[in-house]
């Protein structure tokens, strides 16, 4: 192209303060038409705040937002939508009980406009889905769709509204490698059509693959922008962290006895989420077993069975060679099972409890923290202070409500809470989701340290890279079925991706051990 | 307009809205007093005077506050665990029923044992009454708001049936009223000659006890955890349903003490107008106190003061006592709004 690029979006010296904290410090960013700009930054770097300002959810203290040269009135979401800014959130904003078409047209036209224009809308949706290879049936109920399909609906929804600037927040977190490739293919078609994209992600190789330019935020400040062709993953990681990031080194495992086994465990389906189908799995001492798979394929059921929240319809849980009968979360904790929950906000912590109260959440009944029904706050506080110290939880003090902490620091508290009991079995469900690289490496090194001292670790993750980096044995879960275990390096990501998509199970029956 | 949460509200943020709410309540009540044809300044003077202006007035207010402290505590305890007990009214009558069942001379025990036995029986009756909705909720997922609310009507009709039938006082000249308690079953006065009974002291002790329970005991910790985040509590191994049942038993028992103390301390017998809605007013008390058991005592005194003061004011200034109800309702609504404004700021689009 020899014409000068058209500026689609400009954020001009945006500053936003929350009390003492400066979330965005004179951040400027511009995106040209047809350009993909990746927004990188650790957790708490100010990415979300910046996007919320762009979208009018927050009002900036100073600075302006311009879309195609037109300054948006501050604090007005409608204006941003009207100017063609669209966003696909990490957690989808779809109504499960409506059809795809209803979700897409919802809010796109006034409730008071005459007629529904259903057939026209439908034709347009079919048209768009063909043009951008977003295959999804307009009449399907969203509740019955897979995660990948739901994302397609979100993107269709944005395209239907003629977005000119699309913000994607961690779009690949829930996709298989193949689905990610499909998504990128769609995005490239849209870019060729003139769409501008802001791509928020932690996965550096994806940023390298799709983005033209990367801008890095650190502590609310713009650290710099760089064209992807002039950089590499290590340099980006260094920019994000401020230092060169070093992933933990993994030495070969020396597995011992099986500490925990699932034997032919079957659980009931819950809505559209499949239950487990005769799953057998063994966790051995000194070994990390990785569970790869797309979200919603039965990972939650495995975690809940091990954690004592779900009882198998058939099959058994075997702890130290003994089948367990009564199995509750408290039994699990008392049996030395450390559980790092999938959702640290909803199930891992109680937002309005302070750090002390959250630290003893699983073991407040232990003699160390209470006697005859009365809590010992002095000892509890000492315990929390110890965790804060040892696990480097950054907080104003142990009596801070935990909701004021960043995700990474929350996770460190949870980690400390479960690891301080010297657990023999660790169930880590999405332990690094949404964390920055520094925190990710920290969590991973803690898991490896636990392995080194002989703990059995089950690592459940939707991030295939994470599973392949850490796990000694990898199982893939798809539709409630568990693949045979693959040793480290036995499978390529593409091969695992096929299992994640549900292929291989029928052929692989003979392989099952 | 939108609400934007404030992550770390300042001290002024926490104090100013409630103060404005209180001021606004007074302004609104003044306007109504003017509509009723009275001078608002003298109306408030009369209310204040009627509630706290003399020894008699103060004692009257404390007496009126006693059942409100109990029902307020019952609601505060239950709401803290997000168990919505709307049935304190019925549990109150359950406690009152035990007082007249056991306190009219049927117990063969020595007189020192009678009061403790009645207290225990009253607490058990209230607790058992709330056990049914609690089990329906934890076992079958039946909404406790509906069951506890409906229990109020059922139980009041049941009491009515008893008062028209088996419990009817033969000496009552045909009124639907129970026999009087024997002296040994009455709550004595704290100071002889002053119209204030031990029920008030019991209520304050209960408030302090609940506060200690909530802040120091494992059960209190469990109840708060279940109320704040049921999923996280269950994940951590707190037996959520057991905690809810225990909460219900405690809440029902506290509400029953209100009925016991009204019968044994004040009225001496059971009638259908024993409670002018103490069970429901307990909800207002608990909400005004932000569910804090110690603040429940203060809120109950505030509410009782308005009622007692308005009674006396209406006689003196010829303004309907409904002004008290309106003041309370306004105070509650504005306070709820104020509490929201301590945590959110309004942003204009």
Major sheet characteristics of chain A: 7 strands, mixed
- The number of E-state strands of chain B comes to 2
The level of helicity of chain A is 25-40%
Radius of gyration of chain A: 24 Å
N- and C-termini, Cα separation of chain B:
5 Å
Number of helices of chain A: 17
Query: Strand percentage of chain A, roughly?
Result: 15-25%
What does this protein look like?
The complex is a heterodimer of chains A (513) and B (349). Chain A has 513 residues and is an alpha/beta fold. Chain A folds into 3 domains: 7-241, 3-Layer(aba) Sandwich (Rossmann fold), CATH 3.40.50; 256-336 and 423-513, Rossmann fold (3-Layer(aba) Sandwich), CATH 3.40.50.300; 348-422, no CATH class. Chain A is built from 17 helices and 23 strands. In chain A, strand 4 (62-67) and strand 5 form a beta hairpin. Chain A is globular. Mean pLDDT of chain A is 85; it is low at 508-513. Chain B has a domain at 67-290. Helix content of chain B is 73%, strand content 2%. In chain B, helix 3 runs antiparallel to helix 10, helix 4 (88-103) packs across helix 10 (240-267) and helix 8 (218-228) crosses helix 10. Classes of the chains: A alpha/beta (513), B mainly alpha (349).
């Amino acid at each position: 192209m020899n014409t000068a690029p058209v500026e689609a979006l400009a954020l001009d010296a945006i500053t936003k303060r929350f009390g003492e904290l400066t979330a965005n410090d004179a951040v400027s960013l511009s995106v040209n038409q047809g350009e993909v700009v990746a927004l990188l930054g650790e957790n708490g770097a100010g990415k979300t705040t910046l996007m919320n300002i762009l979208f009018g959810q927050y009002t900036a203290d100073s600075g302006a937002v311009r879309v195609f040269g037109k300054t948006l009135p501050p604090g007005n979401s409608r204006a941003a939508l009207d100017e063609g800014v669209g966003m696909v959130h990490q957690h989808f904003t779809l109504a499960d009980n409506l059809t795809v078409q209803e979700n897409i047209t919802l809010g796109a036209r006034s409730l008071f406009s005459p007629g529904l224009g259903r057939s026209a809308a439908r034709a347009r949706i079919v048209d768009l889905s063909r043009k951008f290879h977003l295959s999804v049936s307009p009449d399907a109920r969203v509740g019955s769709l897979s995660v990948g399909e739901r994302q397609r609906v979100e993107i269709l929804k944005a395209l239907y509204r003629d977005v000119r600037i699309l913000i994607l927040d961690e779009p690949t977190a829930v996709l298989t490698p193949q689905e990610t490739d499909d998504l990128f293919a769609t995005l490239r078609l849209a870019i060729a059509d003139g769409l501008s994209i802001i791509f928020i992600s932690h996965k550096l190789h994806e940023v390298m693959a799709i983005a033209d330019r990367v801008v890095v935020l650190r502590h609310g400040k713009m650290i710099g922008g760089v064209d992807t062709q002039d950089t590499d993953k290590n340099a980006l990681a260094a920019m994000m962290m401020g230092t060169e990031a070093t992933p933990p080194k993994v030495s070969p495992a020396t597995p011992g006895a099986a500490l925990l086994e699932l034997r032919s465990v079957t659980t009931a389906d819950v809505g559209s989420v499949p239950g487990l189908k005769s799953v057998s799995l063994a966790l051995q001492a000194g070994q990390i077993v990785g569970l790869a798979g797309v979200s919603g394929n039965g990972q939650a059921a495995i975690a809940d069975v091990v954690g004592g929240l779900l009882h198998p319809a058939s099959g058994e849980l075997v702890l130290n060679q003994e089948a367990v009968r009564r199995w509750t979360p408290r039994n699990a904790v008392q049996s030395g099972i450390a559980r790092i929950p999938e959702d640290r906000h909803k199930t891992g912590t109680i937002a309005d409890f302070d750090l002390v109260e959250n630290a003893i959440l699983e073991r407040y009944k232990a003699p160390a923290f209470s006697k005859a029904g009365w809590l010992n706050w002095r000892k509890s506080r000492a315990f929390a202070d110890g965790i804060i110290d040892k696990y480097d939880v950054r907080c104003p003090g142990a009596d801070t409500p935990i909701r004021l902490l960043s995700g990474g620091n929350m996770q460190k508290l949870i980690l400390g809470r479960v690891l301080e009991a010297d657990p023999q079995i660790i169930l880590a469900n999405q332990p690094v989701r949404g964390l920055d690289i520094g925190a990710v490496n920290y969590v991973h090194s803690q898991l490896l340290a636990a392995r080194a001292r002989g703990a059995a670790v089950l690592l459940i993750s939707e991030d295939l890279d994470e599973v392949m980096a850490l796990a000694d044995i990898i199982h893939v879960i798809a539709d409630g079925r568990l693949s045979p275990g693959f040793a480290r390096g036995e499978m390529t990501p593409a091969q695992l991706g096929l299992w994640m998509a549900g292929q291989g199970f029928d052929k692989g029956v003979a392989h099952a051990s | 307009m939108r609400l934007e949460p404030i992550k770390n509200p300042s001290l002024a943020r926490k104090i100013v809205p409630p103060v404005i709410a209180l001021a606004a309540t007074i302004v609104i009540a003044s306007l109504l007093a003017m509509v009723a044809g009275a001078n608002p300044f003298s109306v408030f003077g009369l209310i204040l005077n009627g509630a706290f202006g003399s020894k008699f007035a103060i004692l009257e207010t404390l007496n009126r506050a006693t059942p409100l402290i109990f029902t307020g505590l019952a609601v505060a305890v239950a709401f803290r665990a997000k168990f919505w007990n709307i049935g304190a009214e019925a549990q109150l009558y359950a406690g009152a029923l035990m007082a007249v069942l056991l306190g009219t001379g049927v117990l063969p025990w020595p007189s020192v044992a009678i009061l403790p036995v009645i207290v225990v029986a009253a607490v058990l009756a209230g607790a058992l009454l709330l056990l049914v909705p609690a089990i329906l909720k934890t076992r079958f997922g039946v909404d406790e708001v509906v069951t506890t609310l409906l229990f109020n009507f059922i139980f009041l009709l049941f009491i009515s049936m008893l008062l028209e039938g088996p419990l009817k006082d033969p000496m009552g000249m045909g009124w639907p009223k129970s026999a009087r308690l024997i002296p040994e079953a009455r709550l004595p006065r704290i100071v002889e000659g002053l119209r204030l009974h031990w029920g008030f002291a019991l209520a304050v002790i209960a408030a302090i006890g609940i506060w200690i329970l909530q802040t120091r005991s494992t059960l209190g910790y469990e109840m708060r955890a279940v109320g704040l985040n049921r999923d996280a509590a269950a994940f951590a191994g707190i037996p959520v349903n057991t905690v809810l049942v225990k909460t219900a038993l405690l809440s029902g028992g506290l509400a029953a003490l209100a009925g016991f103390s009204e019968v044994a301390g004040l009225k001496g017998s059971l009638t259908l107008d024993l409670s002018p809605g103490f069970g429901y007013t307990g909800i207002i008390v608990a909400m005004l106190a932000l569910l804090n058991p110690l603040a429940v005592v203060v809120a109950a005194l505030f509410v009782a003061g308005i009622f007692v003061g308005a009674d006396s004011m209406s006689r003196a200034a010829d303004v309907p006592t409904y002004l008290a109800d309106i003041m309370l309702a306004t105070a509650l609504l504005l306070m709820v709004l104020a509490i929201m404004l301590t945590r959110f700021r309004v942003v204009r689009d």
